[in-house]
Backbone:
């Protein structure tokens, strides 16, 4: 991956007259690399700058490491360092790893599975039959339990996005509360856990780090999901927000699975808002069934230049907005997720244009809009860097937060949320706008009254 020369260590040691230990070199190499990526600079120009650090010649021996690192941190995080000294503990400086070879496992439209594994007890399911008839050429294999696949095949990162499908009978994990993230305000959302894995491939997708399994797992036993939901809902007897789309895209394979029609049929008379989240324009099945206002079809949005660079295989921004327009005209509730919002020099103009374009086609009010800035674990950054060497989003000003995830600093997040909210409100005074996985301080900056998960949930349910 790296454009860093083999001589960097010796060049620094020679120029400053001290020996770098392994950790020190690892950190400086990482800082050099990320500055080169962010600023389009070469190694030599950065060397020239550190040689000119004021007063460095007066510092003795190996202590020179500290002003060099501090200087590079300032250059690497210009916005944050202009406000306060960078806390080195909040910065993640991993060793550089080589990029993975370009994988063949790229989404090709339409989706064609290379191999379909079917659990024995799902053999006669409607889903298995749909796959047999849609993909007669694919290879099929039966197994007792889909996890057996891993006994025979060692999983590596290059296996992610292999066009494999596992048709299963889900036994345990039907409904779960959204875990949100430690020390942040959740919205009491529930996950209807229908499917795991996604043929799309987004550079920021947390599934890359969350999964040790290739392909897409599709449950065939929707009836079990429905009876589990009835049992679960009897116990809580309160309106809730629930949806698929946390561990997969809700609609990308809907032409094959036909999930949406069954889900809409089941949830349309329940006292819940049921959400299907997508980056696709796959709405044919949805337009064939009568609409119901408690069914929410939602799209994640980003400027087209972000989609082009960071979201492989998805529908374009225009296709998503036009699909939403049709679904809204058909009578379903619609919602949008600006998540992840990615900071760049022109972010205000870029996101402003997305909002302009959205309200050219869509009539407010909407069921809800969520806002969330880019975030991810350290491991996700490492994986994304190896799988998407052309992506620069993780070289943004991201610091480790209380939940140990990398995020933009609070001042920047607050600025982004305030701008987005204000811009949306130009067109749309009533749609509930909420923050996804944010802390109290960011909530206070945009909606001071929404200071607990219960209040946020009530706000979202009451509209
Ligand atoms: S569409 Fe969602 S689930 Fe699919 S790769 Fe992108 S972020 Fe992940």
Residues:
């Amino acid at each position: 991956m790296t454009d860093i020369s083999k001589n960097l260590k010796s060049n620094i040691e020679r120029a400053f007259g001290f020996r770098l230990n392994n950790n020190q070199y690892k950190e400086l190499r990482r800082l050099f690399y990320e500055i080169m990526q962010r600023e389009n600079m070469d190694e030599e120009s950065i060397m020239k700058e550190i040689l000119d650090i004021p007063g460095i010649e007066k510092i003795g021996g190996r202590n020179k490491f500290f002003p060099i690192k501090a200087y590079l941190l300032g250059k690497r995080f210009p916005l944050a360092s202009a406000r306060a000294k960078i806390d080195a503990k909040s910065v993640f400086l991993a060793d550089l790893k080589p990029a993975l070879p370009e994988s063949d496992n790229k989404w090709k439209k339409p989706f064609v599975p290379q191999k379909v594994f079917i659990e024995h007890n799902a053999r006669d399911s409607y889903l298995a039959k749909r796959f047999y008839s849609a993909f007669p050429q694919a290879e099929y294999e039966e197994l007792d339990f889909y996890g057996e696949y891993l006994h025979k095949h060692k999983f590596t990162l290059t296996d992610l996005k292999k066009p494999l499908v596992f048709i299963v009978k889900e036994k345990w994990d039907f409904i779960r509360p959204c875990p949100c993230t430690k020390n942040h305000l959740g919205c009491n959302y529930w996950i209807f856990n229908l499917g795991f894995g996604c043929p799309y491939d987004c550079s920021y997708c947390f599934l890359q780090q969350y999964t040790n399994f290739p392909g897409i797992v599709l449950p065939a036993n929707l009836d079990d999901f429905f009876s589990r939901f009835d049992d679960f809902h009897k116990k809580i007897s309160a309106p809730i927000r629930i949806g698929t789309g946390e561990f997969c895209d809700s609609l990308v394979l809907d032409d094959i699975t036909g999930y949406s029609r069954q889900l809409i049929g089941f949830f349309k008379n329940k006292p819940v808002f049921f959400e299907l989240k997508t980056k696709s324009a796959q709405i044919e099945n949805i337009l064939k069934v009568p609409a119901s206002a408690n069914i929410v079809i939602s799209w994640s949005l980003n400027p087209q230049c972000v989609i082009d660079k960071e979201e492989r295989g998805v529908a374009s921004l225009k296709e998503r907005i036009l699909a939403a327009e049709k679904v809204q005209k058909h009578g379903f509730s619609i919602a949008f997720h600006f998540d992840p919002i990615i900071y760049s020099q022109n972010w205000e103009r870029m996101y402003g244009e997305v909002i302009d374009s959205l309200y050219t086609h869509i009539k407010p009010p909407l069921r809800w809009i969520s806002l969330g800035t880019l975030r991810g674990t350290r491991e996700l950054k490492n994986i994304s860097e190896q799988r998407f060497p052309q992506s620069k989003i993780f070289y943004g000003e991201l610091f480790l937060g209380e939940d140990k995830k990398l995020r933009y600093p609070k001042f920047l997040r607050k600025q982004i949320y305030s701008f987005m909210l204000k811009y949306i409100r130009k067109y749309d005074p009533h749609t509930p706008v909420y923050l996804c996985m944010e802390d109290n301080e960011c909530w206070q900056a945009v909606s001071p009254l929404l200071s607990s998960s219960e209040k946020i949930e009530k706000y979202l349910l009451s509209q």
